Amino acid sequence: MYDVKIPVLIVGGGPVGLSTALFSGRRGVATMLLEKRDSTSMLPRAPGLQARTMELFRAAGLGKEIRALEKGNSHAYFEGGIIKVDTFSDIDNAELLESPSLDGPTVSPERVMGCGQDRYEKVLVAKAREYGADIRFNTKLVSFAADEEGVTAVAEESATGRRLTIRADYLVGADGAGSRVRRALGVERVGRGTVFNALSIYFRAPELEKLLGDRKFILCYASVGGSLMGLSRLHGCDPWLAAPIYYPEKGEKAEDYTDERCVEIVRRAAGKDIDVEITAKVPWQGAQLVSETFRVGRVFLAGDAAHVHPPAGG
Ligand SMILES: Cc1cc2nc3c(=O)[nH]c(=O)nc-3n(C[C@H](O)[C@H](O)[C@H](O)COP(=O)(O)OP(=O)(O)OC[C@H]3O[C@@H](n4cnc5c(N)ncnc54)[C@H](O)[C@@H]3O)c2cc1C
What we know:
eight-stranded mixed sheet; 9 helices; binds flavin-adenine dinucleotide; FAD/NAD(P)-binding domain; 2 domains
């Protein structure tokens, strides 16, 4: 009757779903993970791993492998904090806006680390598989129904359209901010909602590295022209990530940001006519929302499915 029987079914192969598979496997709990995309994240996305996260990865036998992904000493970038300039050409006159609390080195063998999801998610997949996780890309959750003894879920493979019926003792919805699992459970979220709208622009600009020299920072805001653009230096600079804020209430839309406009924005923030090649653009919302519950019977919500926070200073 069932195609698969498994103790824990995880929906979502982002950092949280993959970590759930990894840590469950380490405890001898078998998992199956469904991820609708065909691979791990191609974009760096969230680039900061806290000391506590590093402690957990270390305990799972991954400390060295994840640390090996670090470019330079990223702790120094965290120490540089969040700064503000008129343009990046004026980096020597940067104003310090915020210093993060970095007590990792004094109370822990681990410390914060800058590394994009495009790099560390691959390591999580390999280790979770080593611990026995059955990770299926190109496979999405279609529906599920929970009862007192477990959960019956239907998944679909995108390549073949084949449907699988899966019986699990527990289901973990780690399916991101728009969580289908949370919506199917009817769980509401509370909080301030959307705080700002931003567009992540990923780009190559070799001259920008020269312009910034060895100035360390997590995020540098350029305030030229009355608009704010945050430049991240945590995951490295190939590609760079910059995120201008836009205002839908003023009629602005993510689609207004053509490649040409993004090049202009980066050049204006740089304060110099540098070469810029746009490699990707992704709109996102900084929001603060927490689900009213993280568990309904045998179904759990985890990660962005359970709570979202604006990233800066988080
Ligand atoms: C484009 C983008 C850029 C971001 N940039 C930043 C940043 O610069 N800084 C920062 O701090 N944070 C950033 N974030 C947020 C950060 O990436 C998330 O907080 C983090 O990835 C949350 O991890 P997660 O595992 O909970 O969810 P996610 O990483 O969102 O993973 C959820 C996964 O579930 C999968 N999924 C969803 N529905 C189904 C289904 N029905 N069946 C199977 N799979 C499904 C999705 O494909 C996805 O891979 C960004 C997020 C996005 C989307």
